[in-house]
Structure formats: C-alpha cells, structure tokens
C-alpha cells in the first residue's frame, strides 16, 4: 500500500500515467487469453488511448507491474508469471518480498537484479524521476 500511494502520487503530480490495483486486469496474450492482475500496474500517459471504455481488461501489458510475494506463493507460480512477463515484453516488473525484505527487478530482455533494503527502486525511463529506498517500504 505504501508503494502504491507513493508511486500513485508521483505519477499523478507529474502527469505520467495511471495506476491500477489488484483488481486491474491486463490481457497479455490472445487466443488463448492470458490475463494478469498485478498488485500494482502502471501505464504511461502515452498509452491511455488503449484504456477500455466502460468495463473490461486493459488490452495490453502494463509498463510497470508490481508483484508482492507472500508466504503462500509457490515458487513455480512466480517463475511462470516471470516467464509470462518476459515473453510479452513487460518493460519493468518489481517483485517485492516483504519477508526477505528484498526486491527483484525484472526488465524486458535483461538479467534480473536483486535489491536489498539499502537499495532503491528506480522508475527508470518508465516513471522518470521516481525512486524509493526499499527500507522505506519495510520499516514501519
């Protein structure tokens, strides 16, 4: 929640795009459909015209997906979702692990990077100027 509030405020204040919560679905593949609902999704303002009118899933991937790993998540399920995000080219995925107090950063076409509490999540070219230290997410 803390990340969503901080990220959402930053994106809104800078006119960068919009966020969705865990109820926001993204159709990543068609025939057969693959739909995901990341804990947080961000879509850059340039892609707002893709938003469905009324009800329905966003018809493409998010520019940033944030997934929070819980104690009940199976590693095989996480791996499958990581592979799906990679396959469809989601530009940036943050995998937040509050139990281990780490984050894994997944970028399309690049090796994953593991961050520790003293590191910061960076919005890179997806959310330019956004950065938050992991410790700020875990220390409350």
Structure keywords:
140 residues, alpha+beta, tt1808, chain A, six-stranded mixed beta sheet, two-stranded antiparallel sheet, 22% helix, globular
Topology of helices and strands:
Layout: H1 2-13, E1 17-20, E2 26-29, E3 34-36, E4 40-44, E5 64-68, H2 75-88, E6 92-97, E7 102-107, E8 113-115, E9 120-122, E10 131-133, H3 134-138
Describe the protein's architecture and organization:
With 140 residues, this protein is an alpha+beta fold. The protein has one domain: Alpha-Beta Complex (tt1808, chain A), CATH 3.90.1570. The chain is built from three helices and ten strands. A six-stranded mixed β-sheet has the order 1-4-5-6-7-8, with helices on both faces. It has a two-stranded antiparallel ribbon with strand order 2-3. The protein has a two-stranded antiparallel ribbon with strand order 9-10. It is globular, with a radius of gyration of 15 Å.
Could you give a quick summary of the protein structure above?
The protein has helices at 2-13, 75-88, 134-138; strands at residues 17-20, 26-29, 34-36, 40-44, 64-68, 92-97, 102-107, 113-115, 120-122, 131-133.
């Amino acid at each position: 929640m803390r990340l969503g509030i901080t990220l959402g405020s930053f994106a809104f204040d800078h006119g960068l795009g919009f966020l969705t919560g865990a109820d926001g679905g993204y159709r990543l593949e068609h025939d057969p459909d693959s739909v995901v609902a990341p804990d947080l999704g961000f879509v850059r303002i340039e892609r707002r015209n893709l938003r469905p009118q009324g009800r329905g899933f966003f018809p493409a991937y998010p520019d940033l997906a944030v997934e929070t790993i819980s104690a009940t998540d199976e590693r095989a399920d996480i791996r499958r979702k990581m592979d799906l995000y990679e396959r469809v080219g989601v530009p940036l995925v943050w995998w937040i692990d509050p139990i281990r107090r780490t984050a894994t950063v997944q970028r399309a076409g690049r090796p994953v990077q593991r961050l520790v509490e003293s590191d910061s999540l960076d919005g890179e070219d997806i959310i330019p100027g956004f950065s938050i230290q992991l410790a700020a997410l875990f220390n409350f």
